[in-house]
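Appendix C reproduces, verbatim, an entry submitted by the partner laboratory led by Prof. M.T., so that reviewers can inspect both the input and the predicted structure.
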Amino acid sequence: MSGARILAAFAALAMAVLGTSTVLAKAPLLIVISLDGFRADYFDRGLTPTLAQMAREGVHAQAMRPSFPSVTEPNHYTLMTGLYPDHHGIVDNTMVDPAMPGIAFGGPHDQGADNDPRWWNQATPLWVTAERAGLKTATSFWPGDGAIVQGIAPTYRQAPPSPRPLIFPMDKQLDAVFAWLDLPVDRRPVLIRLHLDITDLMGHLAGPDSAGVNDAIAKTDAALGRLRQGLETRGLWDGANIVVVSDHGMAPISAEKTILLDDLIDLKTVVVTTYGAEGGVDPLPGHEAAVEKALLAPRAHMTCWTRHSIPARLHYGANPRVPAVFCLADLGWTITTKAEQARFPQLRGNHGYDPAEPTMAAFFLAEGPSFRRGYEAPAFDNIDVYSLLAKVMGLKPRPNDGHLADVAPMLRP
């Protein structure tokens, strides 16, 4: 047998034994960093030297439009699936499913209900595709990362302490990332998801224009600077693709701009599934007509629809987890109940509003060998991120709602 045929036979044998795990040697390191609640224009405040340097050396988008509703859990799953929330099943931060009686989604993230795989199995996220291809993945506090999706868990997960503190130190998250990167090459993850949430928390508590948010922006940028330094020290920076995103923006709110559902309907006749910038209720049997009549009537600062009459541009309402009657507040207004109002302190900022609102715009930046240098991208929809990440990883994307052509100019030829 010739030498060429021996090599070909050996390669075929290796593929048969290793399957798709040979992708590991070819897949570049990809770190996807979510800065929760980091509004697109926070970048313009002059508080982010690390991000500014990355923008000069990579790709920065003018804005990224979140999917509706513009809240955390749905948009993080959209970034990983390329699907609208209506299609991937995580339709809100809080929800119920008629096929899952007796449980609700939306409790603290270290409790079990949210990790029930039935919430997540309507879609296949990128990290599941990567694991199936023999690639190792890791996650630090990415929303939903405690769920075993379609029977697959990430290779590495930084488990949050119980009870989880209001603020978990970013340095400890970076320590976990560095520990993963210090593993031998054959054990090292090639996809790392890192979720930093201090900007969202301070946006809610102090408002998007506060000193507290500015401090959070600066601290987040400093953490990214430490990440860069750590990658450079390990000789990994030049070969790594870094994608920095956010899930939504933030708008100022005030106590004076509140709509109480108690004043509009008898709460004993409904199950209130969500509240905030958007409010949703499921009428109890026999009360559907009365609830719809009360909430669908025209009123100031809030618009309500039945599930199937939500405007098509929002791509929302086909999934049975969407409340039967869904309401959206005008920008800066809050839909809630007296009981919920009493449970929580008055917030200064919120999100969940129409994605077309400029204050809901999310952030996007990418740097690395796969991306152009010094490219300012036009605004785009966050459903496009998934296919972009799959392309960078050399993975075939699952069917999705995004369009790679809309973001392909970000990639190097």
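Residues 1-25 have pLDDT under 50 and may be disordered. Additional entries are available on request from the coordinating office.
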